[in-house]
Amino acid sequence: MRLITIFLLLLLLWSVEPRRGLQSKAVERGARGRVRGRGRAGVTRRQTQECKEYVEGGEKFLDCQDRQLTSVMQDWPKDIHHLLLARNKIQVLRDNMFAKFTKLKSLDLQQNIISVVEDNAFSGLSQLTTLLLQHNRLKTASEEILLPLPRLTYLRLFHNPWSCRCPLDNLVRTLQVPSNRNLGNYAKCAEPFSLKGQKLKKLTVDLCEADMSLENREKPRPGHPPSKVKPEAVSICTYKDSKLLDCSNKDLTHVPPELPPEIVKINLSKNGIKHLRPKQFLLSKDLKLLNLSSNNLQQIDTAAFAGLLYLRELDLSNNNLHYFQYGVLEDLYFLRKLVLGNNPWICDYNIHYLIYWLKHHPDVRYTGLTCSEPPEFRGWQVADYVKTYNGECPVDKYPEGNDTGQGAEGGSENEAQEVMRETSVGQILPQPLREKEPNTFEIIRLS
C-alpha cells in the first residue's frame, strides 16, 4: 500500500514539474521584457543625462550639443545659466519654449535647422544677454522675438538665407538702432537679387516700398512676355570676349555678386572698391587673371580669394594697402605674377607675413614691394627690411672703417655689404655684429 502511495506521489510531482518549468520560463521572459522595457523607457533619461551639467565661475552650464535633439526636455534643470544646443535637429522655436529657464544668460542654437521662430519663443528670458542663431535656415522673423529680451547684448544671425522683403523690415530697423551695435552683425540678404549680399545692419531702403516697386517692375505689360532679370555683373560689365569680363571704370564700390562662373579673366580696375570680403570670388573657380588696380583698396579679409585655385596673375597696384592679414594668400596655389606697386606699404611686424609667403613661393614674380613708412625705412625694399628686423636700429653716421666681417648668423661678405645699403634719408643699415676682441692685460710686478 505504501509503495502504491509513493508511486502515485511521484507521478503527481512529475506531472506538475513541466508546468512549473513553463511558468518559470514565462516569468523569465516577462522579466526580460521588463528589463528591455526599462531600457526603452530609460533612453530618454540617458539622452538627457548625456547632457553635461557643470559649474564654472559660479554659473551652471548644460551642454547638450550634438545630441540629435528636436526640442528641449522638460526634465532639464531650471536653474541653469548657460544652455548649449548647437548642432542638433531643432526646426521650430515654439512660443514659451524656454520660459522655465528664467535664469538663462546665454542660449546657443547655432548649426541647427531652424526655419521658424515664433514671436514668444524667448518669453521669460529676461536675463538673457547672448543669443546665437547663426548657421540655420531663417528667412524672416518679427522684431517681437526680441521684446522679451531687455538685456540682450550679443545676437548672431549670420549664415541664414534672409529674405529682405517687407516682413523683415521691422526687425531690420530694430537691428539698426545705434544702441544695438552688437545685434545682427554680418547677417546678409539672400534675396531678392537686387539686395543679395548686403548686410541687414546697413540696408538703407524701405523693404516694403522696395517690395512694391519690384513687383511693379517685374509685372509683365500686356502683350509683352516677362523679362528675365540679368545678374548684376552681366548688366553692369561688358564681355570683351567669351572669357574676359570688363568691369573697369564702372563706379563700383563692391565686387558684383554672382560673377559668371565661366569667366577666366576679370578687370575690376579704376573703381571705388575699398574692402574685399571673404568668398566674393568663390563661384569663379576658373579665374586665371584678376585686376583690382586703382581701387583705393584698404583691407583684404582672410579668405577673400577663397576658391581661386587656378589664379595665375593678380594686380593690386595703385591702392591703399599697408600690409596683408595672415592667410590672405593661402588659396593662391598656382599664382605666378603679383603686382603690388604704388601702395603705401608700412614696414613693421605686420608686413612679415607677405615676405614669409613669397619666400615659400619662389615661383611667384612680384614687383612694387617698397617701404613707404616709417620715414627711416622709406624707399627700402621690404625684403631688405625684414632681413634686418632683428638687427640694430639705423644710425645717423657711417660706421668707421670698411670692415665687412660676418654677422652673428654667418653671412658672407657680399651679404654684409648688401645689408649696408644706403637709404634715401642718408642713413644706412647697421653693420653685422662683430665679435669683440679679447681684452689684453699687462702684468706689472711690484718690487
TrEMBL record:
GO cellular component: a single term: plasma membrane
Region entry Disordered, spans: 396-419
Keywords: Leucine-rich repeat, Repeat, Signal
Family annotation (InterPro entries): Cys-rich_flank_reg_C (IPR000483), Leu-rich_rpt (IPR001611), Leu-rich_rpt_typical-subtyp (IPR003591), LRR_dom_sf (IPR032675), LRR_TM_domain-containing (IPR050541)
Gene3D superfamilies hit by this protein: Ribonuclease Inhibitor
Positions in coiled-coil regions: none
Signal peptide, first to last residue: 1-18
Domain LRRCT: 160-209, 343-394
The protein, known as: Leucine rich repeat containing 17
Organism (species): Kryptolebias marmoratus
